[in-house]
Amino acid sequence: MRDILKPAVVLLAICAGVTLILAMVYQGTKPIIAERAASDLAAAKKEVLPDADHFADLALPARLATDEPLQTVKALYIGTKGGAFEGVVVAALSRGYDTTGVVLTIGIRKDGTITGIHVGDQKETPGLGTKVLDPAEAYLPQYKNLKPNGDLVLVKNKAKTDPAEKIDAVTGATITSRAVWRAVQGALEISKKLTPEGAFQ
User: Fold this and answer.
1) Neighbours of 128 (CB within 10 A)
2) Is the CA virtual torsion 174, 176, 177, 179 positive or negative?
3) Residue 25 falls within a domain, yes or no?
4) CA angle at residue 118 from 84 to 73, to 5 degrees?
5) Domain for residue 24, yes or no?
6) Which domain holds residue 55?
7) Distances in Å between the alpha carbon of 78 and those of 42, 59, 87, 92, 195?
8) Rounded to 5°, angle at Cα 106 from 121 and 159
9) pLDDT tens digits, residue range 72-103?
10) Cα dihedral 170, 176, 177, 179 in deg (nearest 10)
């Protein structure tokens, strides 16, 4: 009996020790991780709405969360320059091919122009979904500086005569293309409701 008990006690002590060390490491790195995340978010906000010099957090009103049918908007920020309203930054999470989703930060100027999209955490398929999320590829630039006159529509094989509101999906990566489209459309919908009266020209 002692031959069985002794290894079990030793193993239990080792597990407890490892758990304690991991907890200490987590507590030690937690502030660093939070600081890094805040820094990354600040850089993303400035990237997508470069004309703004200050960003204020805006609590997501319950009615707007339920109003937004795509359910992608997770956080909102009002961008100002010299105290004057400049636009809205939307933090979004949209489900792609991977169920963890794609994290996106989207800037929309006060006149309704999409000023930028920053891609954050994602686990989409390399060579397929990642082509959608790469700003050097053809998909993301379709949104840049677009001032839509209506809803964005995701299409396959966009014709040259099609309006700019029609966004051409990447062949073989329709799910990831739809994830970005869903997030941007949701950002546009909610930003219109948050824009101060008269800001959209």
Assistant:
1) 16
2) positive
3) no
4) 75
5) no
6) 49-194
7) 13, 10, 6, 15, 9
8) 100
9) 888 899 999 999 999 999 999 999 999 899 99
10) 180
Per-residue pLDDT tens digits for 162-188: 999 999 999 999 999 999 999 999 899
> What is d(CA 198, CA 201) in angstroms, rounded to the nearest whole number?
7
Instruction: Indicate whether 58 belongs to any domain.
Output: yes
Number of domains in the chain: 1
CB contact at 8 A, 170 and 179: no
Model pLDDT, residue 65: 56
Q: What Å distances lie between residue 176 and 89, 96, 111, 159, 171, CA to CA?
A: 21, 5, 28, 21, 10
Q: Considering the domain boundaries, does residue 43 fall inside one? A: no
Cα-atom radius of gyration of the chain, to the nearest Å?
22
* 191 close to 108: Cβ distance less than 8 angstroms: yes
pLDDT at 54 over 60: yes
Measured CA to CA, the distance from residue 44 to residue 75 in angstroms comes to: 13
